[in-house]
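User: My advisor, Dr. K., asked me to get a structural model of this assembly before our group meeting. I'm new to this, so sorry if the format is off. These are the inputs:
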Amino acid sequence: MKELFTDQVDSMKEIESRLQSGAIPWTTLTRNHGHQKVWTPSSIVGHNDHTEIAREMRLLSREVQIVLVGDTLTEEALPTYTNFLTAIQGMPDGYESNLQKWIREWSAEEERHGTLLDRMLFMSGAFNMDAYERSKHMLIDSGMDIGTQNDPYRVFYYTSFQEIATQVSHANVAKRAQEAGAPLIAKSCKVIAGDEAMHAKMYSSFVKTALDIDPDGMTSAIVEMMRQQVQMPAHLMQEVRADTNSVLEPGLLFAAFSDCAQHAGVYTSKDYARISGKLLSEWGLAAQNDDGKWQVSKERQLSEAARENVAECVRIQKVIERLAHRAKTPEIPDHDFSWILS
Ligand SMILES: [Fe+2]
Ligand SMILES: [Fe+2]
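Assistant: The format is fine. Below is the predicted structure of the whole assembly, which you can bring to the meeting.
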């Protein structure tokens, strides 16, 4: 296991203390509204909504339906993410620690997402739930391999990015559903997107804190994460092929799912580029000039080493944007998804 540097320990302690003092605000519905008032899956979609959900689901395009199933799968692999957070090095282990409380509260809020989406898939009658549930079983079994190790800096960059990515994806599915005349599905995805936006703020504050305490180490982790690209959490998704009863190797299903998301305009390489730029500017590391060109920001006092790291981030950001600009929208994949009833 990689040794944890003293600066990382100090950063984790500072995050813990800022959570305690309120300097990092708890941007969660649970903390702000209390358990009595948070939304539950049943408060959005109830027993009597079967017919409406079935009607609405038929109005969505095949790609949007597939994206919805893939998003559900991603949300329902929650045990993987909770494990992943608990294993971060430097995580205080006391029951009363604020970071442990955060993991529990975050998990409780996230759990609603998978439950609500799964319920809609089930109620609609439009999907092969047995095939979907086999994919879920395999995904939780596979976990994820995203190159963060247990390094808190890489993990908090990853979670900051991913919360925004899921927010974008759910919000765009909501938009597509609204356009198709499916208001209940739209409302559900919108409510979930709202949670993701709040979670993103928390993780972003963790990174900001690490930048205050250890700018050299945190900027170096950002460079590494930007260089290796941010993998999606469900990148190991698999399915059992109905025709051969064999398991499709990881990568192929995700590629087909991702093509559907891009084709439907739900999550594209332009979104990826926008998120990575947004984070750099949110943390006061880089800014765009009037011509939209990225440059190192003067907002933070940085050492020579940290400035070099940020200059590298700016260089990578430009490449990401160039590639996103050139990327062509993929064709609808010729993939026979086991999840969809034909
Ligand atoms: Fe979620
Ligand atoms: Fe989330």
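One thing worth pointing out at the meeting: The two ends are 48 Å apart (CA to CA).

User: Perfect, thanks a lot.
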